[in-house]
Every structure is written in C-alpha cells, then in structure tokens.
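Re: that backbone. Tokens:
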C-alpha cells in the first residue's frame, strides 16, 4: 500500500487512493482450459494479465470448456484482503464452439483454502455476490461484494449450475485493501458528522524480489527473446514457457544453474514462493519436466561475486520436485541475519536448464508496526 499526501482530500479522492486493483499478474487456477493445439492454451493467466480486449479474438482471454463441472477461475492474492468489488470483462462468442460464451448470472466467491487442495465447489464458498442478469459478448460488469464478505486470499469466479461450460474472461479485476489496513466503517465515513477521520495502516508484506536487479549463470534464447533472470521477478505468474514470462538457464546437467537477485538492502527473509512451469505438450514427459526443479536451493549472501554451490548460507532446500504448474511456499531458516542478495540454484543432480516462472521473497511481519493518518473530509 502506498500512502500519498493530499491537502484536505474529499471522500471520493480518499476511496480512489485506497481501492486498488490487487490481482494483475497473480497466480491463477482454473477448472479447465481450451486447448486448440498442443502448444497453446486459453489459460486462466489471461484473465489477470492486464490486457483488456486487445482484439476481437480469444488470444488474450481465458476460456474454460465443458466436462469439468463446476466451471471456475480462481485468483490467489497471496495475502488476506478485504474485497469491495470485482470488474469482469467478458469475452466474445467464439464461432468455433457450439455454445455461446456463458457468464450469465455468474458467481463471485472467496475462500482461504488452497485451490490446489480444495477445488471450488458451489455452495461451499463464502459469497461475494451473484450477478442478477445475463452477460452480453464483450460486456464489462462491476459486481459489488456484500458487506458480510469475509477477508480472503482466494477470489473465485464461477458459472451457475445450468451453464454451458464455456466461460471466456478477458480480464477479471479484484478491488480491495489488505486486511487490517482500514480500521473504520466506510458507511459511517460517508456521513460528514464523523470527523476527524482516522485510518490505521498496518504493515503489509511486500515481495522483496519484484522487479529487482537480477542475473543468472546463463540463459536460454527462444523465438520471443532471451529468457533471462528478469522474467523470474517480473510480477507475472504465467506458467507457460511459450508466453515468455519464465526465466531459464542454458546450463546442462551438473552445471551451476543459478539465479541471483539484488534486494538493494539487507532483509530477514521469512519465506519464498516458487511458481513452476506448466506443461503445454502431450503429457508423456510430465515427470521429466517436474524433475528440472528437483531439490532446488534458496541461499542468501552479502557478497557480489558469482555464487558457488554450498559456499553461501542456506535459506532452505525444497524436498523433491515441484508439481508442474504450481506455486509452492517454503519457510526460510529463521536464525539467519539480514542479507542483501538472494540465490536460487538447481540441485547438482537435477536435469539442467533450471526454470522459474516467478520467484517471490517475503520478510516477517512485525504486528506492532502500524501507521496512523488523519484526514478531514470536506
């Protein structure tokens, strides 16, 4: 949350400051994804890539397909948020499919249970709201959440039970604030009798690696460009290799295979989050792909020199391989002091070509830290 100073802001200005889009580029899950060929999926990532109606095709829209009821798209916000409303940018009715895009009477629910472990089931989610009407092709719909919607990490868009199964979403935006950052009743604030207005901003975890200076032992070059370390921390959790949001080394078996990131100052790292590559091709080599991240290590250092395996303090080592197309979290050694540089390195026994689609690092939260701002509403 970025706090800005305005002289005597109005309530409308204040709300504009507080209500932020909180889902661009976040990790997503879906019940299914349309697969016109082995090398392209209309995956749920396209629902949070920040692109709205780039053209009239479905090239930048997520699309679920029948046969995987219930039909849903879920967004992992990575932290607890108070959700105020969502905005849905509906896709087109694709001529190649027998049924129209069907977002009529769509449902938005929230949850705090992992979507990998507990896929959404209608009637078991906490309800944000249900849209009370049909949704036309390319329509933009805002849906306000109920005041009783609990704070949540996961936001899920679902079709009702009588839907076609085709659900095309060009963009799904979630608006809210970190849970605990607003210690007031927003309805009361609309009454100017309640002055002065106090707002408490508690400390909120931020990704220490986001867009940080980065390097790697090598990088692979493909048709879309160089898959460098910068793509590992670009903020987009797109797990498809062909979309070029993942970094990958060109090192072979037993070679260094490392990424290094400059956090610009020293931090205590509480945990890291690792997003792995998803498989675009036939599932014959799924296990081989997972083994590329076998037993990877996260290290920390204050020296600028090239990382040498086993010659830097270890944050943690992942036990085994990472499930294809998943986001996993790993606690760091709590006894380590502050370090400036973070290292991700493949195991010496892994297959080579170490790939990370997104890497995040977070420091511990000090619950005693908070900030108080006072505004006058005019």
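Recovered sequence:
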């Amino acid at each position: 949350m970025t706090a800005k100073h305005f002289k005597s802001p109005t309530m409308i200005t204040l709300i504009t400051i507080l209500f932020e889009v909180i889902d661009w580029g976040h990790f997503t899950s879906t019940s299914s994804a349309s697969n016109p060929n082995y090398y392209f999926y209309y995956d749920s990532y396209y629902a949070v890539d920040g692109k709205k109606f780039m053209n009239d095709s479905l090239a930048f829209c997520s699309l679920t397909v029948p046969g995987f009821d219930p039909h849903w798209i879920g967004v992992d916000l990575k932290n607890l948020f108070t959700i105020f409303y969502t905005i849905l940018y509906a896709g087109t009715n694709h001529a190649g499919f027998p049924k129209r895009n069907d977002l009529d009477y769509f449902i938005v629910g929230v949850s705090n249970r992992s979507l990998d472990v507990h896929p959404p089931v209608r009637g078991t989610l906490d309800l944000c709201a249900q849209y009370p009407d049909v949704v036309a092709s390319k329509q933009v719909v805002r849906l306000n959440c109920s005041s009783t919607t609990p704070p949540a990490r996961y936001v899920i868009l679902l079709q009702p039970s009588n839907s076609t199964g085709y659900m095309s979403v060009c963009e799904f935006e979630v608006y809210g604030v970190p849970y605990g950052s607003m210690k007031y009743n927003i309805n009361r604030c609309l009454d100017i009798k309640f002055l002065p207005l106090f707002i408490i901003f508690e400390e909120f975890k931020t990704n220490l690696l986001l867009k940080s200076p980065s390097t790697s032992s090598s990088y692979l070059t493909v048709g879309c460009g160089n898959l460098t370390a910068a793509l590992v921390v670009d903020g987009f959790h797109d797990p498809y290799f062909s979309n070029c949001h993942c970094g990958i080394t060109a090192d072979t078996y037993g070679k260094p295979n490392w990424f290094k990131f400059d956090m610009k100052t020293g931090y205590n790292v509480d945990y890291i989050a690792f997003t792995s590559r998803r498989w675009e091709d036939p599932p014959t080599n799924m296990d081989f792909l997972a083994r590329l991240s076998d037993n990877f290590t996260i290290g920390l250092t204050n020296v600028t020199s090239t990382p040498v395996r086993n010659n830097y303090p270890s944050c943690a080592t992942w036990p085994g391989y990472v499930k294809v197309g998943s986001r996993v979290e790993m606690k760091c050694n709590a006894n380590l002091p502050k370090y400036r540089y973070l290292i991700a390195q493949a195991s010496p026994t892994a297959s080579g070509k170490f790939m990370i689609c997104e890497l995040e690092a977070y420091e511990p939260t000090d619950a005693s830290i908070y900030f108080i701002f006072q505004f006058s509403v005019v």
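Residues 105 and 167 are 12 Å apart (CA to CA). Helices lie at 11-18, 186-189, 286-290.
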